[in-house]
UniProtKB/TrEMBL annotation, chain A:
PANTHER family documented for this protein: CONSERVED COMPONENT OF ABC TRANSPORTER FOR NATURAL AMINO ACIDS-RELATED, HIGH-AFFINITY BRANCHED-CHAIN AMINO ACID TRANSPORT ATP-BINDING PROTEIN
Transmembrane stretches, start-end: none
Signal peptide: none
InterPro entries xref list: ABC_AA/LPS_Transport (IPR051120), ABC_transporter-like_ATP-bd (IPR003439), ABC_transptr_urea_ATP-bd_UrtD (IPR017781), BCA_ABC_TP_C (IPR032823), P-loop_NTPase (IPR027417)
Lineage, highest ranks first: Bacteria, Pseudomonadati, Pseudomonadota, Hydrogenophilia, Hydrogenophilales
Protein name (database record): ABC transporter ATP-binding protein
Sorted UniProt keywords: ATP-binding, Nucleotide-binding, Plasmid, Transport
Disordered, as annotated region: 1-20
Length: 280, 382
């Protein structure tokens, strides 16, 4: 049902609207409204753990096709934000809209995944005891209910897609190796490959280049840039060179809410940002 | 949210039986044929056709012990399905086994007819309690087919309801294990009560007939033995098929990283619930085959130790392998019958030591050890 409303316009966005461009726009759930080409809209999200507010009235908008970087000191709430979007954590208050109509706070993790949101965890999370190929096979977009997996067979078209992804993540010669035996960087890439197999419309990537070599990091940036436009990406990172290479709009999170938003250059000269983050 | 518009998945239209047959490789076929010849031809002949004084004669004792171990092997495979593959340890499988046994035991009690000590239509224990008629849940128990239906439905339903609430509340790991143990314990206390209507702490025993045939005749024993062997073989073939399907890979994935499975769009609830329910049903079938062969069922089948022993069979043979649990159930139970004859007082010490040794040194059990030895030999010759 969500497919039609989330059709992406490939022309959309390098992600540069002025800050606040789409804030203040009233969303009417149930109504299809693509006039603002918004794919994700967080509205006043608050999450507290034993009274401590990990997210504090956080509001954020991601455009369709945008590549957005999120930075912020440890504990700023970046991972918690992804938990809220993917249904792992329920916010105390606030709402999260995927497109104009789907309220993610009312959906379960698998429903959110099937609606078109893929997530890469901060620590690579793959299936150690399955082969690289099988990891990709399970991730592949398909009917994921029990009765279909009982009789599913891989056809040649799917075989090709897996092979393509294997090449893309440079694990073509490791296809039948147990995923648990891969190096850290390779695991990161496998998880990214799994994400791509899901064919999500929105990709959430939590510190995707942590533990990668410079070369791997550079290739990851190229991959993400090639995805933007067709997909929307939200990337949490600490690696400033990597963020510079991605070149999109950057949001600074601090103590659970947005401190500043704009281009990296602009933010690096913003005294508030320097104080909490960059200046350290 | 329905996931319908999916063009990328294809389903094979091959009939189910063919797909199952395709899942077996050459070695599996050979093993099956050999097992079938031994269980359905050789052993029956050695028991029925060879005179009792010949050294080739297989005694009643052997047939009963063998049949019992086959039932235990089914339990072990069932437990491995949920523990070895899906990573969920149940210490409550004794309950499903006992429920299957009780459901079929009701039929066996009714088959005694008026040959009990009180010569009544009611089972002896009911006469003893002064009951005048059968409780409502005993109606239909004189029908073989109805009892088979009870065996298949009641334990499965109990497992389904329990599993649904436990998995939906995301009760995992050791918490789940403890709750299964508690459930079994509660059921044991319930079955110990005379008022429950299942013979209290004596349970059911003194069976005379099954489908009108004497339950202790050599022919009946052989048929029950062969049925147990057939049930085990079908179980193995089906489990092998499941584990080679995408369904089986999702189970392993849930064991490795459940949250990743969820964020890929699978709902682990239904995967866990279906494999859990199937596992319970297999246990119930094993229990129903077990009771006529050993001639007794009582609440001690639901004791904590029993369910723990089942886990030991799986651990010894090798978790997450198809044949490991069968080997484990065989070896541990052969050892047990030897111990209980020779030094019964040491059995529990032996069992405990075995479990510790296996856990510390052979996490993949005997099958894992075998594979490691083979790899080492392969490495030398290469
Ligand atoms: N499950 C939890 N229980 C308690 N506190 C948590 C939990 N998850 C996160 N937190 C706290 O919330 C804050 C934000 O965490 P997180 O979102 O992981 O930050 P980041 O990813 O930006 O480093 C941290 O102070 C962290 O300790
Ligand atoms: Mg984090």
């Amino acid at each position: 049902m969500s497919d039609t409303q989330l059709t992406l316009d490939p022309e959309v966005g390098d992600g540069y609207g002025g800050p606040g461009e789409v804030f203040g726009h009233t969303l009417r759930p149930g109504e299809l409204d693509l006039s603002h080409k918004v794919i994700l809209y967080l509205e006043d999200i608050t999450v507290s753990f034993d009274g401590f507010k990990a997210l504090n009235k956080l509001s954020l908008t991601i455009d369709a096709g945008e590549l957005r970087c999120i930075i912020g000191p440890n504990g700023a709430g970046k991972t918690t934000m992804m938990d809220v979007i993917t249904g792992k954590t329920r916010p105390d208050s606030g709402r999260v809209f995927f497109g104009q109509t789907l309220d993610l706070t009312q959906m379960t993790e698998p429903e959110i995944a099937n609606a078109g949101i893929g997530r890469k965890f901060q620590t690579p999370t793959i299936f150690d005891r399955l082969s690289v190929f099988e990891n990709l096979e399970l991730a592949m977009k398909a009917d994921k209910r029990v009765r279909s997996t009982l009789r599913a067979r891989i056809d040649s078209e799917q075989q090709d897609r897996i092979a393509e992804t294997l090449d893309l993540i440079r694990l073509g010669d490791q296809a039948h190796r147990l995923a648990g035996l891969l190096s850290h960087g390779q695991k990161q890439w496998l998880e990214i490959g799994m994400l791509l197999m899901q064919e999500p419309k929105l990709l959430l990537l939590d510190e995707p280049v942590a533990g990668m070599t410079d070369d791997e990091t550079e290739r990851t940036a190229e991959l993400f840039l090639s995805l933007a436009g067709r997909h929307s990406l939200v990337v949490v990172e600490h690696d400033m060179a990597f963020i510079r290479q991605l070149g999109g709009k950057v949001t600074v999170l601090h103590e659970g809410s947005v401190l500043a938003e704009g281009s990296l250059d602009m933010l690096q000269n913003d005294p508030r940002v320097i104080e909490v983050y960059l200046g350290r | 949210m329905e996931v319908c518009d999916v063009k990328t998945t294809t389903f094979s239209r091959t009939p189910f039986v063919f797909r199952i047959a395709q899942s077996l490789d050459r070695r599996a076929w050979i093993a099956l044929v050999v097992a079938a010849l031994v269980a359905f031809v050789l052993i029956p002949l050695l028991h029925l056709a060879i005179p009792a004084d010949s050294i080739f004669h297989l005694s009643d004792y052997f047939i009963t012990l063998g049949g019992k171990i086959l039932c235990y092997a089914i339990v072990a495979v069932a437990l491995d399905l949920i523990w070895g593959f899906a990573g969920i340890l149940s210490l409550g499988h004794g309950l499903f086994f006992a429920l299957g046994g009780y459901a079929f035991g009701m039929y066996l009690m009714r088959q005694i007819g008026r040959d009990g000590s009180y010569q009544s239509d009611l089972p002896d224990f009911m006469v003893f309690l002064g009951w005048k008629e059968l409780p409502w849940y005993w109606y239909g128990s004189d029908s073989f087919l109805w009892s088979v239906l009870l065996v298949l439905v009641v334990p499965t339903l109990v497992a389904f309801v329990f599993g649904f609430f436990a998995f939906r509340s995301r009760i995992n790991g050791v918490y789940f294990t403890i709750i299964t143990q508690a459930l079994t314990f509660a059921a044991m206390l319930l079955f110990f009560r005379n008022e429950t209507g299942f013979g209290g702490n004596n349970g059911f025993t003194d069976f005379k007939r099954i489908l009108g045939f004497s339950i202790t005749s050599p022919e009946t024993r052989v048929v029950l033995f062969a049925l147990s062997a057939l049930a085990l073989m079908l179980t193995l073939v089906f489990v092998n098929y499941l584990m080679k399907s995408k369904f089986g890979r999702v189970l392993v994935a849930i064991r490795d990283a459940e949250s990743r499975v969820m964020f890929l769009g699978y709902n682990p609830l239904w995967y866990k619930l279906s494999v859990w329910t199937l596992s319970a049903m297999l246990c119930a079938i094993a229990g129903a085959l077990y009771v006529p062969q050993v001639g007794i069922i009582n609440p001690s089948e639901m004791s904590a130790a029993n369910s723990i022993e089942m886990a030991v069979w799986v651990a010894v043979g090798g978790r997450g392998t198809i044949i490991g649990p069968v080997i484990g159930a065989g070896i541990v139970n052969l050892a047990k019958s030897w111990f209980t004859m020779s030094f019964p007082q040491y059995w529990l010490f032996f069992l405990g030591t075995l479990f510790i040794v296996i856990t510390l040194f052979l996490p993949d059990g005997l099958v894992g050890l075998w594979n490691r030895l083979r790899r080492m030999r392969g490495g030398e010759s290469a």
